[in-house]
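RECORD TYPE: protein structure
NAME: Cytoplasmic 60S subunit biogenesis factor SPCC550.15c
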Amino acid sequence: MASQASSFTCLNCSVRFANAEAQREHYKTDWHRYNLKRKIAELPPVNVEEFERRILQQKSDDAAAQEDQSLYCRACKKLFKSKNSHDAHLDSKKHRELLRVFLKEQGEDGEQSQSVAVKSTREKKDFGVMMEQDGEVEEVDSDEWNDEDWDNPIENNDCLFCLNHCDDLIQNVKHMSVKHSFFIPDAEFCIDVEGLLGYLAEKICRDFICIWCNEKGRTFYSLDAVRNHMVEKGHCKMLHE
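PREDICTED:
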């Protein structure tokens, strides 16, 4: 019996299991995958307690990196309560139109001061003066601008994963296939390709979600960040089960 029990092991993580099912479930865990990467890098494995500690530390570091701050767009006279909504605003067509007008009025230096991050008490004091100079300012909640004014690249025949522009939808799909290895699973059964791509565009360009990781992966706070992730990781593909 002891010999049978010891046969269900993971040498990589130095653990034993009561049965084959527990062993198989272990192979699916992030801890096991983490130790595999360490093995490839010729580093010693870590136990599950150390792995969980590192995960918590990483989450804490990520939260600190995305510290609470207000961001103000001088071009549009809008105050955003989160970096996420501010980044989505910068990608919107309305912002770009107002920015062109703003830069003409302000000159070249206006571009550098179009958006201001406000964190410290001193900055907030100076920021209040600047807002008074700008006149009436609209305060925008986290998703208010994001939902209404983001640009859908499919409507403009733009690529989901880069800045490439095509003349029509067919050329756009071909570009994404050749350049990014993107394909539509069971395409012959898809009766609304444009609608499907529009839905994917919402996830990527509005919600900043990797369409392969879906909502189970990392959190991204800008369109550039999620696009870079998908291109670098080879995630320019649909999650299809």
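COMMENT: The chain has eleven helices and six strands.
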